[in-house]
TrEMBL record:
InterPro entries for this protein: GDP-Fuc_O-FucTrfase (IPR019378), POFUT1 (IPR039922)
GO cellular component, one term: endoplasmic reticulum
Cellular localization per UniProt: Endoplasmic reticulum
Record-given protein name: GDP-fucose protein O-fucosyltransferase 1
Source taxon at top rank: Eukaryota
Membrane-crossing residue ranges in chain numbering: none
Organism expressing this protein natively: Dermatophagoides pteronyssinus
Homology family: Belongs to the glycosyltransferase 65 family.
Major subcellular location class: endoplasmic reticulum
Database matches in Pfam families: O-FucT
Signal peptide boundaries: 1-22
Length: 436
């Protein structure tokens, strides 16, 4: 073949290949059952992640493609957005139900099926914000309040010309699926002002955690951080300590409501109405929310002992845990020094030493020495990943951030025996294991 012939053959192939590719990209089919779009406008990551599961279950029950919203994050009190697909893999979620990224929807579908003039907004009933009766505007008022306004503006939506649709008296619950299908059969893109899921969500939705996979990007960042902090390849206990001032204030609710049966994500420990949860009558105690220093020490001691007492560890087939990773909403260095000192006393008879890895200090129990880690504290997603994948974990029964980790460990990784909570012992009689 002459050079010019070869050149044209290659050029031709390139032309065909690139054309096919571009056809593939733009050839996006439209779901005849329509789409579900919503603002994850309630709470921070833990709440949004839990309501995502309820919403996914709901989207399947009404048989619409779910458009994946970004996660809303508050950085220095400013609303910011993290595309869903930057955090979690969408292919695995697609195994359960049809989903698409917000980006794809806005770029490829919105110009076809969600043009400006076709947009309506849906809510349960009129939402009023103004305290002044004369200013009360009927409707979903989707731009009222934060992060509502920022969310729709982020999508490039300034207006819903078709106005508000109400779903009252229905509920955003899969048991009402048929009514939803009927009622909104003519609405191609059902845009909801908030997540169509309760919080906390139902126990069937909790199990959808098995479709949650972190992206390679998050995994690599977390593993790099782990190497940087000197415990790459080492087994570790990860603890989630919530003790910031806002958290303590939230825990105070328990003192003022002694009969409280549910608070935030307490169902991860105390169960819901599910028959399997026979410890339902357990009351919420302050210690579950805000464990004392002694309870933190007890939790760490018993988790390490139960891991290191395994036969495989004793036979040297598995390394013992010698690293404790502390993820927290408040980096309290004096507390880390106290923890290190107290753990040193408790573990003085064992031959091994412990290393505590906190956001800014790495401490050693053998001689109380510590070094400073001068780089920025980890982003909460790094903490989330490292807590989720730790060899042993201790969480907070009330925290929805902990609840993400608990669900992920139980339903995705099947880490039952190494998932613990501060100040709480799951009764042995109740084992979720059978259903995993
Ligand atoms: N980096 C980091 N941030 C955390 C940790 N725990 C909590 N946070 C931050 O605090 C937020 C907690 O909010 P949620 O995710 O809703 O969890 P929650 O436990 O229900 O807390 P509240 O919203 O305060 O009720 C997270 O989104 C993080 O920004 C942690 O261990 N590490
Ligand atoms: Mg929360």
């Amino acid at each position: 073949m002459s050079f010019s012939k070869l050149f044209f053959t290659i050029f031709f192939h390139f032309l065909i290949f690139s054309t096919v590719n571009s056809i593939d990209d733009s050839d996006i089919s439209i779901d005849p059952n329509g789409y579900l779009l919503y603002c994850p406008c309630m709470g921070r990551f833990g709440n949004q992640a839990e309501q995502f599961l309820g919403t996914l279950q709901f989207a399947k029950s009404i048989d619409r493609t779910l458009i994946l919203p970004p996660f809303i994050e508050y950085v220095d009190y400013k609303v910011t957005f993290q595309p869903f697909e930057n955090i979690f893999e969408i292919d695995h979620i697609n195994e359960y139900h049809r989903v698409m990224t917000m980006n794809d929807f806005l770029k490829k579908l919105s110009p076809l099926i969600w043009k400006h003039e076709n947009r309506s907004i849906t809510c349960y009933d009129s939402r009023h914000f103004s305290t002044n009766n004369n200013n009360k505007k009927e409707g979903c008022n989707p731009f009222e309040g934060s992060p509502f306004k920022e969310f729709w503006h982020h999508l490039g939506v300034q207006e819903f010309p078709l106005g508000s649709l109400y779903y009252k008296p229905l509920h955003t619950d899969y048991n009402y699926a048929n009514d939803w299908r009927q009622k909104f059969r003519n609405v191609t893109v059902l845009a909801l002002v908030g997540a169509p899921s309760s919080f906390p969500t139902n126990s069937a939705a909790v199990k959808l955690s098995k479709y949650i996979y972190f992206t390679k990007n998050i995994m690599e960042k977390a593993n790099k951080y782990r190497m940087d902090r000197g415990f790459g390849q080492k087994p570790y206990l990860a603890v989630h300590l919530r003790h910031g001032i806002d958290w303590i204030r939230a825990c105070e609710l328990i003192h003022s409501n002694p009969d409280l049966k549910q608070l935030f994500s307490s169902q991860q420990c105390l169960g819901d109405k599910d028959k399997q949860h026979r410890w339902l009558n357990n009351r919420i105690t302050f210690d579950l929310c805000y464990p004392s220093f002694e309870q933190i020490i007890d939790g760490i001691k018993s988790s390490i002992q139960s891991y290191n007492n395994q036969d495989e560890v004793k036979r040297n087939e598995k390394q013992p845990i010698q690293h404790i990773y502390i993820a927290t909403d408040l980096n309290n260095e004096s507390m880390w020094l106290d923890l290190n000192q107290t753990l040193a006393k408790h573990f003085s008879s064992s031959s091994s030493t412990l290393t505590l890895i906190t956001p800014t200090l790495t401490l050693n129990t053998i001689d109380g020495t510590f070094s400073e880690y001068k780089k920025p504290s980890p982003h909460f997603l790094i903490d989330l990943y490292l807590l989720s994948h730790s060899n042993s974990f201790i969480g907070n029964c009330i925290s929805s951030f902990s609840a993400f980790i608990t669900r992920y460990r139980l339903y995705r990784l099947h880490f039952f025996h190494t998932t613990h909570f501060f100040s709480f012992h799951r009764p042995n009689s109740v084992h979720l294991r059978d259903e995993l």
